[in-house]
Amino acid sequence: MKIKILYEDKDILAIDKPSGISVHPDGRTKEITISDWFVKNYPKAKNVGESIFVDGKEIKRPGIVHRLDKETSGVLLLVKNQKAYEFLKNQFKSREIKKVYNAVVLGSMKDDRGTIRKSIGRSGNDFRKRLAGRGARGELREAVTEYTVLKRFENKKINFSYLEVRPKTGRTHQIRVHMKFINHPVINDPLYNQNQPHPKDFERLGLHAKSIEFKDLKGKIVKVESSLPKEFEKVLK
Questions:
Q1: Active site (annotated) includes residue 69
Q2: What is the pLDDT along the chain (237 residues), one digit of tens a residue?
Q3: Would residue 115 be called left, alpha or beta, if left means φ above 0 and alpha means ψ between -120 and 50 degrees?
Q4: What does the alpha-carbon distance between residue 19 and residue 17 come to, in Å, rounded to a whole number?
Q5: Contacts for 25-32: CB closer than 8 Å, 24+ residues apart
Q6: Residues with Cβ < 8 Å from 45, sequence gap 6 or more?
Q7: DSSP states along 98-146
Q8: In a 10 Å sphere around its CB, with 0-12 CB exposed, 13-18 middle and 19+ buried, how is residue 74 labelled?
Q9: Phi, psi at residue 232, to the nearest 5°?
Q10: What are phi and psi of 224, to 5 degrees?
Q11: Distances, alpha carbon 92 to alpha carbons 38, 182, 204, 214, in Å
């Protein structure tokens, strides 16, 4: 697995995560993950972070302080020691970290910009899904997403919009769920936009983590950016 490093210091690593690779194991498959790559290349950090339990199985997540969905590409932070893990975890918890995404969504959006404020819960029909609005179950967690329309594409076959998205909270599948909620789902979303039209030759989820801004352990603000994937560039010409 070849992974591009975008930023590195003695505590923190930022990589350019490809689409189609999971950040950590899910306990169900044996696919190679970002966690596997990290441990192989930074073996001293194999015990950094916390474990989660999935279906009663303990899943270790070395170096993982936040995550991107398997189908999402872009900037991902990893940590080399427990001090850095706690430091960044607190920044995520206090919403100090600024994240910017690019998204391609179905339909021509009416408003040039907007804010989606809708709590997110679980779907009662599919354990993999989250849901905003009617039918959401379990604990409903606050979720806020801001978006700006960068460009609209309208033709006879399909209309879609290219967005800059700034999630203010960090809920699972937040952007995907919120865009589905306003009837402009992310294109090629296998959970929230199945069997819908998409731009020609665009065969991946239309979501990319463009940049992330955080404080390093010395208190310096660091901004890391990922170039737009070639699939995006091609469809946005």
A1: yes
A2: 899 999 999 999 999 999 999 998 776 667 899 999 999 999 999 999 887 766 666 767 899 999 999 999 999 999 999 999 999 999 999 999 999 999 999 999 999 999 999 999 999 888 889 999 888 899 999 999 999 999 999 876 889 999 999 999 999 999 999 999 999 999 999 999 988 888 888 889 999 999 999 999 999 999 999 999 999 998 888
A3: beta
A4: 7
A5: 25/59, 25/60, 26/54, 26/59, 27/54, 27/55, 27/57, 27/59, 28/54, 28/55, 32/1
A6: 38, 39, 62, 63, 79, 80, 81
A7: EEEEEEEEES--SSSEEEEE--EEE-SS-TT-EEESTT-EEEEE--EEE
A8: buried
A9: -70, -50
A10: -120, 135
A11: 21, 26, 27, 9
What predicted TM-score, i.e. pTM, was given to this entire model?
0.93
Domains contained in the chain, CATH given: 4-235 (3.30.2350.10)
Tokens 């209309």 correspond to 159
Residue 210 sits at φ, ψ, to 5 deg, of -70, -45
Degrees, nearest 5: CA angle 203-121-202: 5
Q: Which of 69, 111, 126, 189 is catalytic?
A: 69
Alpha-carbon span 164 to 58, nearest angstrom: 36
| Contact status, residue 232 vs residue 104, Cβ threshold 8 Å | yes
Query: What is the separation of C-alpha 109 from the centre of its chain, rounded to a whole number of angstroms?
Result: 22
Q: Which helix (H) or strand (E) holds 175?
A: helix 174-181
Q: Which amino acid is at 59?
A: I
